[in-house]
Automatic annotation (TrEMBL):
One of its GO terms (molecular function) is glycosyltransferase activity. This is Glycosyl transferase family 1 domain-containing protein. Residues 47-202 form the Glycosyl transferase family domain. InterPro entries: Glyco_trans_1. Gene3D superfamilies: Glycogen Phosphorylase B. Pfam families: Glycos_transf_1. It comes from Nonlabens arenilitoris.
């Protein structure tokens, strides 16, 4: 089907370069996946920025239980105000609710279920210092970066193309996959360098707006029609 097309649109710049090697005669462009318009992106923060946030499906492949256990390991080393906010639905939600109650930390773990209201989701991000992808990273990374919130990401996973948004040390940090201790230490590192990450929020949003806004995504298709 690619050979029949006059122009090919892929997800990422890396995919574009790889396909050019196979089909140098074709016009190939990239349209990165996005969820926010530029005017929806914001580096606003709440009075207190202490939370750790996860947004996504609560399924085994996304490993929310790994995040829970990593958080629990360093709970006493984090600010008392810090909460783990786990947003989403799926079969792992019941396990998380049960574990947090059993461990007596339900006051530090907030699991509201699915949140579809953009204004409410924005408020959760405003209070969060870091977002987490304990399993494979997906579209939620561009959402997190659109609010200026860096992400801690499992290093060796079958990540979605959105991983291309990562600039290690600028808008994300990696931890060793399936390693609670590595994840736990990564979380501590974000809080030890809190001022640095808060100062980077504006730059993170600006970078995301250029590369991963809905305007950037749709420009490829609009230019195709011109």
């Amino acid at each position: 089907m690619r050979s029949l097309a006059s122009e090919i649109i892929v997800y990422t710049e890396q995919q574009k370069e790889e396909l050019k090697l196979k089909m140098p005669q074709k016009k190939i462009t990239a349209a990165p996946n996005a969820v926010l318009f530029k005017n929806e992106m914001s580096c606003d923060t709440a009075t207190e920025v202490n939370d750790i946030i996860y947004v996504g499906r609560l399924i085994a492949d996304k490993k929310p239980l790994l995040l829970y256990h990593g958080f629990k390991k360093v709970l006493k080393e984090l600010p008392e105000a810090t909460k783990l906010v786990i947003i989403g639905n799926g079969p792992e939600r019941a396990k998380l609710l049960e574990l947090s109650k059993k461990d007596g930390i339900e006051h530090r773990v907030f699991i509201p279920g699915e949140v579809t209201k953009a204004s409410l989701l924005k408020e959760y991000y405003k209070k969060s210092l870091v977002s987490a992808s304990p399993g494979y990273v997906g579209l939620s990374i561009t959402q997190s970066l659109g609010y200026g919130v860096p992400m801690i990401i499992a290093r060796d996973e079958n990540h979605s193309p959105e991983l291309e948004a990562v600039k290690d040390g600028f808008n994300a940090k990696f931890f060793n996959s399936n390693d609670e201790d590595s994840l736990a230490q990564g979380l501590i590192s974000f809080f030890e360098n809190k001022e640095k990450w808060l100062k980077l929020r504006k730059e993170i949003v600006e970078d995301c707006s250029i590369r991963y806004s809905i305007e950037a995504m749709t420009a490829t298709f609009i230019n195709l029609l011109k």
